[in-house]
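Troubleshooting entry. The earlier prediction with phosphoric acid mono(formamide)ester gave an output that would not parse, so I re-checked the input for stray whitespace and re-submitted. Clean input:
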Amino acid sequence: MKKFTSVSDVENLQEIIKKALQIKENPLSESEKGKGKTIGLVFLNSSLRTRLSSQIAAQNLGLNVLTLNAAQEAWNLEFADGAVMNGDTVEHIKDAIEVLNQYCDIIAVRCFAGMKSKEDDVNESILSQFEQHAKVPVISLESATRHPLQSLADCITIKENWQENRKPKVVLTWAPHIKPIAHAVGNSFAEWMQEMDVDLVITNPEGYDLDKNFTKNVKVIHDQDEALKDADFIYVKNWSSFDDYAAMPEVKENWMLTNEKLKNTNQAKVMHCLPVRRNVELSDEVMDGENSIIYQQAKNRIFSAQAVFSEILDELNS
Ligand code: CP
């Protein structure tokens, strides 16, 4: 694997899921693989899971880990090409990446959507600069449009929880939120589930359809109860409007996932990438109930990251 920014960087999804599950059985099985090499984890945005699970994964492989919480700890970055830097920005992203090239064998970056310019976000205005200027493999720790390490962890979690000899019905359901949230997790989940052997349905209120470039021909149902019927897995996530970019059109019905809504499902397992706003996106009873596999999903972030770092190291060591 030369880089990891979307599902298209994965040669064989079932193989990498299998590898991640083997790593879960024996996390230190490749503890020398990254010896003498350094991964830089650069966070332009907040994180709990991605930061810690990536650190654990890298350490399990013997990598040196540099973590930079750039928004708090580094110089104020300039992203615009040709900018006259006579204002608040102190270092251009191009120069920062060139310096990271001197220190790191792998650069992993988190760069959320700005949610101001649809064009900038759709075109991955920050991740694309890393891809352009990095001379080492680039890994996405969530970008404007995708969260591939999360999606791989989601695939691993579904695989672990599905033993039946039929395709599971997986429902990605929109959930309420108090502020405009990016589309990366929803887009990415839709994209990866289309590569899995599942029946995927997306449900969201009118005005909240995700970008068709990610959902393609997946069925979108605007009635949550109808969509949840017979579900085997429910993935709860908020996102703002894509068409009316970052807007939050009014929603009259209550879309928060509750135990009542689980009654019509096939005892569905409930997933969420976290962080979650309890009693807004889903109820306490769901979060703490026996259907929730959300903490298992969070644990699998380690093995998702480790499987990817391991494949990148294979390329570097070849
Ligand atoms: N799910 C996820 O990416 O969590 P963090 O934002 O805490 O990293």
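This one parsed fine. The first strand starts at residue 38 and ends at 43.
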